[in-house]
Amino acid sequence: MTVCILTNNAALFPSAAFGNGRSIRTLTLAMQDGCIVPPTSDDFSRAYKELEREFSAILVLMAPESILPGASAAHIAAQSHGGTAKVSVLDSQQIGPGLGLLAQIGSQKAAAGASLPEVQEYIRAIIPFLFTLLCPDTALSSYDERNNLSTASLTDLSSVVPIYSIEEGCLAPYKKVRTRRHLLETLQEFLEEFERPQQLAYFRGYTIRLRARQLREAASGLFPGTPFTEMELNAPLSALFGAQAVGITVLEMPV
């Protein structure tokens, strides 16, 4: 059985350390007037039919529905799929680098010859060891507009800007900050909670001037040799969280 990991470009791929990604396929999210258009069940059905020409099994790895709609459409298409490939849908409970890392880890497991259930269970076991902090640019974030959250922005330093952690696929309030410096300090304090992380990924919107040097230096001192990747949000993630959003994802699996 050859297993494909199907995700979308709400995933960012921080590291090549977890395999070459040959079994990862990405469904491009459509954009309209600067907003994400969630994929339909027909979009997923077409993707499944195309992928079964090359793979005998497809694991659809999705961002949580509460953050980015699409998982329900993937399920509907999987239930009605009558092709030769087995299809399973898994909620990653992550987005951005967290979603990308899980896809890479699943791809590595598939490359080692694991079956679809084995790949799915392996990824499911790793999900609790991924941790993400996110500070949306709430002046621009469609997520915040959809959920009636604060309209503050990092461009307005007199405002209180919320930081969220991703908890079981939902954005949970973590802390509020007033300045970029306080935001960086909060991210550094978050890093200090870990002992032996395997991957660190700092991500930011394309207009924010908050660079990773200070955080990278802190991470290097705390965890010498641990990969630290700085990533820029792509168009869908910028539409979702705003062009000045920043965050960090940590993978710390038991040794």
Structural descriptors:
alpha/beta, 6-stranded mixed sheet, Hypothetical Protein Tm841, Chain: A,domain 3, 4-stranded parallel sheet, about 260 residues, 12 strands, Rossmann fold, 8 helices
Characterize the structure shown.
Helices cover 32% and strands 26% of the residues. By secondary structure, the chain is α/β, with parallel strands linked by helices. α1 (41-51) crosses α2 (71-80) and α3 runs antiparallel to α4 (116-126). The two termini are 29 Å apart.
Helix count, DSSP H or I runs of 4 or more residues: 8
Estimated share of beta-strand residues: 25-35%
Write down the secondary-structure element order.
EEEEHEHEHHEHEEHEHEHE
Give start-end ranges of low-pLDDT stretches. 139-145, 148-158
What is the structural class? alpha/beta
**Shape summary:** globular
Strand order of the largest sheet: 9-8-7-12-10-11
Assigned CATH architecture of the largest domain = 3-Layer(aba) Sandwich
First-to-last CA distance: 29 Å
CATH C-level label of the largest domain: Alpha Beta
What is the CATH topology classification name of the largest domain? Rossmann fold
On the 0 to 100 scale, the average pLDDT is: 88
Total number of strands: 12
Largest sheet: 6 strands, mixed
